[in-house]
Amino acid sequence: MMYRNDVPQEPAAVSRIGDSRRFALKRATDAAHTHVEGIINSAGMFASLDGYRRYLVATLAIRSRYESLLDASGAASVWPAWSGRHVAHLVAQDLDDLGVAHPAIAENADRLLNPAELLGALYVLEGSSLGARVLSRLVHAFGVSADHGARHLHAQAGDAAIWRDFLSVLDGAATPPCHATAVRVFGDFADAYARAAR
Ligand code: HEM
């Protein structure tokens, strides 16, 4: 017979007190970040305007799916600033600017996330704003800007204080973040970019 305390614990899913939850998440997802970055770079998504269009199409598909899921799961009650951090509608405007047809943003159809899973998913979506600071500069080479074609990257990159706000919520939350969820979210983004690269 197996008792509750005999159930093997998943070390990656647990943050220890005194060990910053952010850096534990970063360690748990470093390989996943390198993987998704590698797919985007190999596909030349920041090497030409055509590549960037494919990046936008894939970003809209996966980002809108996760934004709907986070809304439906109550992310704003875990992190109040979340409602101001949506960018899928701006990605859609970037595609409009560049004359690319795209589907409408869909309603959530996934299983809802619990608070630990929400924190893991929020970390990935909001953390991508750190990379957006680099990417928003790269795309100037294709003639896109904060007002035309790169609205979402500039919106993400523009507010450094909001990342610190998220980190304080992450560290103070009653439930530690679920690392497996963060890894899975990275994997879903990687799959979306890999499909758009073919
Ligand atoms: C070519 C594409 C990308 C580049 C060049 C890039 C670059 C970066 C850079 C420079 C940082 C900051 C690292 C630091 O300050 O230590 C960062 C952080 C991060 N990025 Fe990316 N990134 C890319 C794509 C993505 C994507 C697609 C996602 C999510 C789906 C993502 C999620 C994150 C997260 C969560 C962090 C925060 C890590 C931390 O805790 O410091 N990145 N990225």
SS strand fraction: under 5%
What is the average of the pLDDT values? 91
User: How many angstroms does the end-to-end distance come to?
Assistant: 50 Å
* Overall CATH architecture: Up-down Bundle
Largest sheet: none
CATH class: Mainly Alpha
Q: What form results from the Cα inertia axes?
A: globular
Total discrete domains:
1
The CATH homologous superfamily is termed Heme oxygenase-like
Which molecules are bound in this entry? Answer: protoporphyrin IX containing FE
What is the name of the CATH topology?
Answer: Heme Oxygenase, Chain A
Residue windows where pLDDT falls under 50 for at least 5 positions: 1-18
Number of strands: 0
**Percent range of helical residues:** 55-70%
Structural class: mainly alpha
The number of helical segments is: 8
Q: Give the C-alpha Rg.
A: 17 Å
Order of helices and strands: HHHHHHHH
What is the secondary structure topology, with strand pairs?
Blueprint: H1 21-42, H2 49-72, H3 75-78, H4 88-97, H5 115-138, H6 151-157, H7 160-172, H8 179-197
Could you explain how this protein is built, in words?
The protein has about 200 residues and is mainly α. It has one domain (about 45-195): Heme oxygenase-like (Heme Oxygenase, Chain A, Up-down Bundle). Helices cover about 60% and strands about 0% of the residues. It has helices at about 20-40, 50-70, 75-80, 90-95, 115-140, 150-155, 160-170, 180-195. Helix 2 packs antiparallel against helix 4 (about 90-95) and helix 5 runs antiparallel to helix 7 (about 160-170). Protoporphyrin IX containing FE (HEM) binds near residues 22 and 37.
